[in-house]
Amino acid sequence: MFIFPFALTGVSAWGQQHCVGRYCVTLSERELTAEAGLCVVIPCSFTNADEFKPQHVVWYKCEAAKHSCSETDIIFHSNKNTDKKAQAAFEGRVSRLETDVSQKNCSIIINDLKESDSGSYQLRVTGERNEQQDGFTFSQRVTVSVKGIKQKPTVMIPTLTEGQQATLTCTAPGLCSGSVPEITWTWRGAGGTESYITGNSTDFKTENLMGFTQRHISTLTFKSSAEQHNTTVTCKIRFTGETTTEETSTLKVNYVKEVKITGVTSVREGNVLNLTCSVESFPPAHIVWKKVPSNTNLQTRNTDLHNNTGSATLVTLNVTAENSGQYICMAKHLDKTLTSYVNVTLTWHTKIQNGSGCVLQSDALTCVCISEGFPLPTIKWPLLEDHTQYTLITTVSNHTVNSTVSLTVKKHGNSTVECVSNNGNGEERENLLVQKKHGV
Ligand SMILES: *[C@@H]1O[C@H](CO)[C@@H](O)[C@H](O)[C@H]1NC(C)=O
Ligand SMILES: *[C@@H]1O[C@H](CO)[C@@H](O)[C@H](O)[C@H]1NC(C)=O
Ligand SMILES: *[C@@H]1O[C@H](CO)[C@@H](O)[C@H](O)[C@H]1NC(C)=O
Ligand SMILES: *[C@@H]1O[C@H](CO)[C@@H](O)[C@H](O)[C@H]1NC(C)=O
Ligand SMILES: *[C@@H]1O[C@H](CO)[C@@H](O)[C@H](O)[C@H]1NC(C)=O
Ligand SMILES: *[C@@H]1O[C@H](CO)[C@@H](O)[C@H](O)[C@H]1NC(C)=O
Ligand SMILES: *[C@@H]1O[C@H](CO)[C@@H](O)[C@H](O)[C@H]1NC(C)=O
Ligand SMILES: *[C@@H]1O[C@H](CO)[C@@H](O)[C@H](O)[C@H]1NC(C)=O
Ligand SMILES: *[C@@H]1O[C@H](CO)[C@@H](O)[C@H](O)[C@H]1NC(C)=O
Ligand SMILES: *[C@@H]1O[C@H](CO)[C@@H](O)[C@H](O)[C@H]1NC(C)=O
Fold first, then answer.
1. Domains, the chain
2. Best exposed site among 48, 172, 295, 372 by fewest CB in 10 Å?
3. Where does the signal sequence lie (predicted)?
4. pTM for this one?
């Protein structure tokens, strides 16, 4: 057994080669950093004199200050039948990338890293030389430093649409071959309180890559709902040794609620028509007002309220008859257009019309009161309060009411009869002149 305390150095195509005589090792990375829970690959190759037949590789980890690691520092021995055992702490965590020693590839992967794995790693190759057991230990070492995990899982979220099934995937960081991590999903509803998505299902799978590494993936499948919009989902990975890493993502769910129209739809002439059309949706909907049958958009004041609600307010000052009719609010959301209709009616004061008046022929009094208005007015005759016997005929055409009253009066002395018209917007009183007719 011989050791090369001072190695000669040379530079190969992929790293520094250190030789003593015809025994060389190439450690392409002298300093490696890795993260707890994950793994590290120490790339390594060697060459030897022709008369030496390599059989096994041994890796040690010891204090950097120590001149050469000892047998108690073994972390890996490719000979399973030797009594030179690897430290229990490394048991099952170290493996060679290439098991055929004749390939002179001494690279190893150390899985399930802990911060205590930080240190200085040294290689020894054992074999036969001139039919005698022999071996050589290289003084060149590799320094590995293991830090707390920084890498986060990768969460992939497809476009979420209300009412549709969606599958989120979470991929654990690192391409290693160690223990299978535990992957859990948690959902935080509105207000950040931990809750759960009803009817969800999860699945776990491990993909083998390039022979010696694996990728661990968990999926979460559920039906999206509007209530999930702006809530968060966390994917947490737990490696052996209590190392955890997590990623939190906000869910954006495409949804749209019904189109709502608010405001007073019957307006008095000259007043303000003020209608608001609002839609709660994500992403915001494009809202327009049109007046049927015109196809042009009316001018509106559009706002985006909190709570994902967009609105368009239509304000018409000094309303005239032209402003009455059917209006339509259209909300364009993604590739859908939702509509809602509203009928605007104009109300006006009652007006007692020409053609109203009374005729007294002997003791038969006939009065006609014609009034127009919207809503339709009702006509009252104060005179009738003193009478029980009369006939009253009311006819309606469009917005006009014709109220004709006939009664018998004895000694009617008044020259006028009052007609009162009221439609809720106002009252009009008029004293109708009594025209006296004599004779037959
Ligand atoms: C050692 O073997 C591994 C696995 O086959 C390979 O990826 C790596 O490149 C090899 N290293 C050298 C130095 O040949
Ligand atoms: C999935 O549903 C189960 C109950 O079936 C629940 O315990 C878990 O928290 C849910 N997961 C999520 C992410 O909501
Ligand atoms: C989304 O949630 C965040 C935090 O809970 C909150 O500050 C924000 O206002 C919400 N946004 C919407 C559009 O609801
Ligand atoms: C229209 O109505 C809204 C809500 O009632 C009100 O805030 C706004 O001031 C009104 N606009 C006009 C011009 O009257
Ligand atoms: C947001 O909208 C939902 C449903 O439309 C409603 O229940 C909730 O009260 C609204 N929140 C606020 C702050 O307006
Ligand atoms: C309202 O419209 C009528 C008819 O067009 C017009 O005569 C009147 O001056 C208008 N009033 C106001 C306050 O604009
Ligand atoms: C609005 O008026 C139209 C006819 O002018 C009628 O067909 C429709 O049913 C009315 N809609 C409402 C909501 O009153
Ligand atoms: C109603 O009668 C008055 C007075 O006779 C007249 O000035 C007015 O023009 C008439 N109105 C109509 C609509 O006929
Ligand atoms: C009712 O109004 C319509 C439209 O304003 C008009 O064409 C029609 O002649 C009116 N009918 C009567 C009986 O006045
Ligand atoms: C009002 O009604 C009476 C009775 O129905 C009728 O004789 C009269 O001609 C009507 N007047 C008008 C202006 O329609």
1. 2-147 (2.60.40.10), 154-253 (2.60.40.10), 257-349 (2.60.40.10), 353-437 (2.60.40.10)
2. 295
3. none
4. 0.75
